[in-house]
Amino acid sequence: MGFEEAGFDIAWTNENDYASASMYEYGMTSWRRSRGDAVHPASISSRCDVRGLGAGTILEQAFGGDIPPFFGIIGGPPCTDFSIGGHGRGSDGEYGKLLAVFAKLIGQIRPGFFLMENVSGLWRIQRHRQFLLSAIDSLRVNYLVDMNILNALEYGVPQDRERLFIVGFDRNLLGGQAITDSQNGQWRFAWSEPRYPGAKQLPWPQMVEFGSPVERPPRIPLELTVYPSLTGPPKPGDLPNGDEVFNAYSRRFWQVQEGDNSRKSFKRLHRYRYSPTAWYGNNEVHLHPWEPRRLTVREALRIQSAPDSYVLPSAPSLTAKFKLICNAVPCLLAKAIAESIRDYSSRVDSGVSAAVRETNEPIFRSG
Fold this sequence. Notes:
The chain is an alpha/beta fold. The chain has a domain at 2-198 and 330-366: Rossmann fold (3-Layer(aba) Sandwich), CATH 3.40.50. Helix content is 33%, strand content 12%. It has 14 helices and 8 strands. The protein has helices spanning 2-5, 18-34, 55-63, 97-109, 121-124, 126-137, 171-174, 176-180, 227-231, 252-255, 297-303, 318-327, 331-347, 350-359; strands at 9-14, 72-75, 113-119, 143-151, 162-170, 182-183, 186-187, 362-366. It has a 6-stranded mixed β-sheet with strand order 1-8-2-3-5-4. A two-stranded antiparallel ribbon has the order 6-7. α3 packs across α4 (97-109). The protein is globular and about 60 Å long.
């Protein structure tokens, strides 16, 4: 979604999980139609295991015999095995191995640029970092590569969500631009500047008793709090997916203080704070600040900065829906990165700039 908003076209997609693929198609199609594009419904090009897809097959499915001179690959290999709070199997995990598969396919397909996204633990945990560097080293022959850990909160998303982004541009396409953008001999990508740098250092309010009146802090940007996501207009309950919620009963729904997210389960949001990372599992969706329940699907989508026109179908389970939501890159952050890649592409040599204009910047998506 972020890349489409930045002007890119999606030429090919891959998703092996049936529920995620179906929800992607439904949600993206509803969003495109809200923007006046009823001609191009979203579809997953391939639902095969990516390990069974060769570079030639992917290029043929995406472009036929007319491969454009400039295109990109974006994707997020599964992150569970690298997550600090996950299983921690790293490169030995069945999902962790797919990062190397993704990097290998980039090297074989040879796009003009690539963008890879994963959890920050892939860099911060030493043994995972070594695996990442070994996978990326094979690409450095043909690509200049830069990495950055960005927090969605600093880009206007009401959520403390750090993610690692790895971007690479074909050395042959950059030409003299590579020298211009080098610092101490190392190429640096022009990452989009955050709108709220250092946002976590603002004077955020403390916990209060559940059900107590709460005053809005004067120095906190309202858009960085969950309050607009949970109130509207329009009210989330009046929208599609607005009444989809886990209805499990527990006394703790009335007992946990507003803003108490100190424990692993039953984290309650504060209306005038940002959300902790939307990473839900085993039906552990965050608690609503002033109502004795968990968040709905629509509320969680809003906290990921997804527009209300992005609608999920009714059939999939709530577990599948929340899994899709918490695996996503927040839309505002994705758009900022996509715009920085678009702008950087237009700065490189004239041959690439012309190719971008002629092909309308097709990209793959795998994740």
